[in-house]
Amino acid sequence: MAIKILIVDDITETRENIKRLLYFEKDMMVVGEASDGDEAVRQTQKLNPDIVLMDINMPTSDGITATQEISLKYPKTAIIIMSVQGEQEYLKKAMVAGAREYMVKPFSTDELVDTIRRVCDFEKRRRIHLTEPSMVKELQRDPQIITVFSTKGGVGKTSIATNLAISLAEETRKKVVIMDLDLQFGDVAVMLNIIPKRTITEIIQDINQLDSELLEGYLISHPTGVKVLPCPTRPEYAELITGAHVEKIMGVLKQNYDYIVIDTPHYFHETTLTALDLCHQILLVVSLDLPTIKNVKLGLEVLDSLHLKGKVKLILNRSAEDMGIKHEDMEENLNMKIAAHIPSDGRTVVSSLNKGDPFVMTHPNTKITESIRELARMVMIGEVKLSRVSGVNEKKGLLGRLFG
Ligand SMILES: Nc1ncnc2c1ncn2[C@@H]1O[C@H](COP(=O)(O)OP(=O)(O)OP(=O)(O)O)[C@@H](O)[C@H]1O
Ligand SMILES: [Mg+2]
């Protein structure tokens, strides 16, 4: 059955544009329109849509109040907020009011369609969870794998991955593991002040017998409860690890963990590609300098050719620094909106790094920690089912697709 969509925006042209974007989607149907919040509530009652695409600022009655009313009265309808840049404050309110996702205008067809499908999928799972206890166990074991990646070195991947892992554990109280796939020069252990006795190298020797119990013995506990799978102790051991090994390890980790955060090097190695392919969300880290933008643009093109772009979220690190390039220009150049901003804060990052204590622990009241918490929430909201977004089941391997 087609997904029923209600479009709420005070500007007729915007509504028309969205209708046009959705026109060719066979599994979606625009069932109605509204030009303010009150009308949105009335139309939701009348049309019973699956999705409401909701503008925030409308002259007569706003989208946040309507979001709250709809989520309370018609919980089967999911709301996706459409905001313009600079409405961050409202976005938070909209999420608290019960919105499921947000998109920053203008968005592409892919973005819109992907977001609608993802939210519907999540809603379906949520409903089953509420109504069918027998399926709850199955659903609880639907972990999220988040790969932190960039096609440029030194942009802050490891800082973000480690702090995100801890923040996810704090926010969700669920089981989190971080895996260091920067196999030659990984920094996860050092950033978490861990001295690895056993690493991924040793696991490879047990790979055929590997099960969750055996793997657990290789993981190192961080005081926060986050588990760590460190990279090899020597760069030359990296060669021993293949994409197939990584796939096996990820599969076993999924049996026991709710969130698997993967740190990566800045290039498309076979093992990185496996992580990118099998993960649910790719956090692509970028900073506002030309070489990084150039490399990330190339990286995005590769990800697009591998059909992995749909799960990419662009994370701007050091966003508050005046680099002489505006982030709007970068967004235009990359043709992608920034999903999260991490401010620059050298003092906090470096001092915590030198102590080996992630800043989300040592500096809980800083802007940078708040931004990581927001990122964790975004990751939680953006939970997706893998089959929707990835070409994982395609027969030809990723490397084949890349070079074939
Ligand atoms: N938001 C930030 N503000 C200030 N400094 C930062 C920020 N993020 C990262 N850094 C600094 O940038 C440097 C590189 O960070 P990090 O090691 O996390 O990057 P990376 O992308 O993992 O690098 P590599 O490609 O070498 O693995 C570190 O010295 C870190 O302290
Ligand atoms: Mg790193």
Task: Give a description of the structure.
By secondary structure, the protein is α/β, with parallel strands linked by helices. Helices cover 47% and strands 16% of the residues. It is built from 19 helices and 13 strands. β8 and β9 form a beta hairpin. The protein starts with a strand and ends with a helix. It binds adenosine-5'-triphosphate and magnesium ion. Residues 157-158, 182, 187, 263 line the site of magnesium ion (MG).
Q: Any chance you could write out the topology, listing elements then pairs?
A:
Layout: E1 3-8, H1 12-22, E2 28-34, H2 37-47, E3 51-55, H3 63-73, E4 78-83, H4 88-96, E5 101-104, H5 109-131, H6 133-140, E6 144-149, H7 157-172, E7 176-180, H8 188-191, H9 200-205, H10 212-216, E8 220-221, E9 227-229, H11 243-256, E10 259-263, H12 270-278, E11 281-286, H13 290-305, E12 312-317, H14 327-334, E13 338-342, H15 346-355, H16 359-362, H17 367-381, H18 386-389, H19 398-403
Parallel strand pairs: 1-2, 1-3, 3-4, 4-5, 6-10, 6-11, 7-9, 7-10, 11-12, 12-13
Antiparallel strand pairs: 8-9
Helix pairs in contact: 2-3, 3-4, 5-6, 7-17, 11-12
The protein binds adenosine-5'-triphosphate (ATP) and magnesium ion (MG).
Keywords:
alpha/beta, globular, Rossmann fold, single chain, five-stranded parallel sheet, binds magnesium ion, 19 helices, eight-stranded mixed sheet
